Amino acid sequence: MLNRIFPASLGVLSLLAFAAPAAAQEPPAPASAEEVRALRSEVQELRQQLRLLQEKLAALGGNSPGTPAVPPTAPPSSPAPAAVARPVRSQNLMNPAISAVFQAIGNTSLRREDEGNGFDLSEAEIAFQSVVDPYAKVDLFLSFPAAETPEVEEAAVTTLSLPASLQVKGGRFKNAFGKWNTLHTHAFFTVDRPDALVNFFGEESLTTDGLALSVLIPNPWDLYLDSTTEVGTALGGPAFNEAHHDLTALERISVLFDTSPDSTLELGLSGAWGKAGATESLTLALEEAGLTGTLEPRDALDSRVTGLDVTYKWKPLRLNTYRSFLWQTELLRSRRDVELLTPSLTLTPDEVSSLGGYSYLEWQFAKRWKGGLRYDLAGFPDSETARESSATAVVRFQPSEFQELRFQVKQTWRNDAAVLLVGGDAEDTRIYFEWIPAIGAHGAHKY
Questions:
Q1: pTM of whole model > 0.90?
Q2: 182-203: per-residue pLDDT in tens?
Q3: 232 touches 168 (CB < 8 A)
Q4: Is residue 158 part of a domain?
Q5: Domain for residue 93, yes or no?
Q6: Domain count, the chain
Q7: Which of 116, 159, 243, 333 has the fewest CB atoms within 10 Å, measured from its CB?
């Protein structure tokens, strides 16, 4: 090898030695403008090719773009080892995202002494969320209420790749009735839920074991128009029961408008249809008459609840971390078939129609501070005369997205029929304090 390389090197050096004096005697002519532009274009193309090669090497070998590739250690005559591509799917996706959140609540009445006064751990929630594969995801929320049995709050599988903007969800989920019903308790704007939702759906949200189909409806106005249809067995509550596993159906249509670059307006219509059992009024009447067990009321009477919701959000593009405004209002109407106890101690059919709703305003006046006002006016699904109203003021302090403290004052008024129906006082004032810390990657709620 050396015998061949050494004579060839001497020959090249000899040619350079003869060419150097000739080049010194005849200097080259200066390059023209066209030649300079051509050279610049070639240099630019070479730079682009080099950048593409570096990106390909980074994708194959894990190096970041711009990092020079490490030269191979194998001899030049031997082939370079094939680069092993890293898996596209992150290994973290093989494990579900786990999070936990709990609520420490203290409250007291300024007018009476009752068992509700004091501090307690209202509820703890553990969430497991992950994609199953490119076609579905699972959301599992376990709830641990204070002094109650742990339960599955939500457990649903949702499709991710159906055509025509379709999405199917199955399992246990909070029904898409209005806006507030879908929220978990730690995501409320206030410490408690609106009175109308409590009176119509119970202390917990309207929840169903079943199936849901949602679709984005194409329209010529290029609006966000969404339709959700749900069918299943509703968990027990004032408006619907789960006797005989009667089916509950729900339909919701919502549309979202961009009112400006900084604000949106959403309108929604909701309707739920199912079966309900004996009312609390009838149960009390039978107890007072000593007819419990003698007269058996029907437990599968028709019940319907419809709702209208309006939500306006303003969040400026430049000061979105310091200023925002929210106005949310929901109106509900319940129509329910009932049975009444007549003076002759027989049951007669009847229908009860009642209204309820709330309106909530919230203003963010600093980076971590928000203040809100809510007014409630609520009837009851089994009484046309019982009414209660309340006014609520709340201040929310959010040190970060993982922690929130709330201070709330609520004034409640009830008429005589409501006092007889639910007990308590005709007027009450309560003060609340709530501390909500969260750990882990807790999924965001719907806009």
A1: no
A2: 999 999 999 999 999 999 998 8
A3: no
A4: no
A5: no
A6: 1
A7: 116
